[in-house]
Amino acid sequence: MGLFRLLFWVAVIFAAIWIWRRFISKAKSTRPTEDTAAPMVRCAHCGVHIPKTQALSQDQQWYCSQAHLEQGPHTGDR
Questions:
Q1: In the 8-state DSSP scheme, what is residue 52?
Q2: What is the pLDDT confidence band of residue 25, given thresholds at 50, 70 and 90?
Q3: Cα separation of 58 and 71, whole Å?
Q4: Which of 14, 42, 45, 77 would staple 68 via disulfide (CB 3.0–4.6 Å)?
Q5: What distance in Å separates the CA atoms of residue 6 and residue 12, rounded to the nearest whole number?
Q6: pTM (2 decimals)?
């Protein structure tokens, strides 16, 4: 009977470790990662793409800098 009791406890310990690892890995995968891509917008003046959080907005257009915001959208006469 001693061998069966030992095998039972070994199986219980392995099952507990397996369940614990699955729980931990599931908890890690539900957190948003920092590697997710930020939404990008295009500067209406120069066309450079920048993160939306760093862009300046005016009249539903996005700009990469204060200077480009002041100059307004590119008109194509360069």
A1: G
A2: confident
A3: 12
A4: 45
A5: 10
A6: 0.51
